[in-house]
Design a protein that fits this description.
Elements: H1 3-13, H2 15-53, E1 55-61, H3 63-66, E2 77-78, H4 79-86, E3 91-104, E4 123-129, H5 136-140, E5 144-148, E6 160-164, H6 165-170, E7 178-182, E8 189-199, E9 219-222, H7 223-227, E10 238-239, E11 241-246, H8 252-263, E12 270-274, H9 277-318, H10 320-328, H11 333-384, H12 421-447, H13 451-457
Parallel strand pairs: 4-9, 6-8
Antiparallel strand pairs: 1-11, 1-12, 2-10, 3-4, 3-7, 3-11, 5-8, 6-9, 7-8
Helix pairs in contact: 1-11, 2-9, 2-11, 2-12, 4-8, 9-11, 9-12, 10-13, 11-12
Length: about 450
Amino acid sequence: MNFVKRAGLSLWARKGRTLTTLATFLAISAMVLAGVLISDATARAEQDAKRSVGAEVNLTMDMDVVSGGGHLQAPRIGATTVDELGALPQVQKYTYSAWDRAILKGTSQLVEGGPPDPMGPGGTVGMGVLDTSLLPGFRSGTFTLLSGKHLTAADKDSKQLLVEERLAKKNSLTTGDRITLTGNDEKATADFTVAGIYRDPRPGTETDPEYGINPANMLYGTVGGLSALSTAGKGPLQVGEATFLLQDADVQGAFKKKAKQIAGSALDGFALDANDKAIQQMTGPLRSIRTTATVAMWLMSLAGAVVLALLVNLAVKQRRNEYGVLLAMGEKKSKLIAQQALEIVVVAAVAIGLSSLFAPALTQSAGQSLLGKEATAAERKINSWQPPGPGSTGLGEGVDWDDKPVENADPIDEITVALSPGDLATVGGVGLGIGLLATAVPAGTVLRLTPRTILTKGT
């Protein structure tokens, strides 16, 4: 009799064993498929998050290198070099900045609040920026441009400012008005045009942690205009930091490599750091449920494989006489093994087909529930972070500024499960591999014996 027909008759005759094997395979395939589906869904969500956030690389002072000699000296890099890096194909947008003390002259006054005169009478921070729209405050939506326009690279050599609304109100400034500033050396003076007025929601009592001033007194100006107030402003424009927004997060490595080739020793004292905090914050729950699903998948698969191996081993022992008779009648051992394998393949195929019908819906429901819990926990952790008090660095309170949450980067709390042919192929490969291995080992052991030995030993 053809071994294919024998396999069909065997499955039908042993309905109880067939259903038990089918249930075991169904559990294995459902768990493997669930793990694969969650892995694919979280991977797609992570990729979408990367595309929405983009990739940011910051050129900042390398504290380890700069302070290695026992003294701290802030490095500078030529603006022309940064422009070359900004022209690389991996870069979507870029900006750079340099700051110095700026002193309000004439009748202009600073907004009261915060430490008294942290930079001397009338002194505040003049931050020269190539593109103010790329400042973290504006990108996150914390700052709001109330009137006027952002400063861009086209304004680099002009003398224009963005003024915070409280400072503008105190000095009755509107867009288009002029304000006089003096540089840190208290010699160079220039008139600046108010290009725009913005809102910083931080209260005046909340001292800026980096510069120690009332945030209402922060001035953002063109890099060329503010550098002209510095004694070093006569030479080529030098900047202290830069930000590059890349086309895609996957090109970070290529950008860093090319940047080092172009800038060379100009990068001494600087570090090129990828600012992926937003992506990490958004995708934290995704990584958590993927890990959980993967562990559960493998544990269930291993447990199912053990049960399946026991079932198959028992079935093979029960069929010793059948094997002995068939071998005595001249049937080839290879066909007996092929029959056993075919029975497993048929059961596995039915189990995988059934699991593909209900597993995606169950995975969507279970994965969404699990992700919701992880996202809620992550959100609570983000909301619980508190900055140190005014005038404090946070060191005494154990507050690490690196742990400060990124604004407008809420943890992802939704995934979409979708079944693809590749997912079925993966599940099929795992299931068939487990089934064939569980079948071949005990069957091979029996079939190494002679028909006489098999029949005389009995069951």
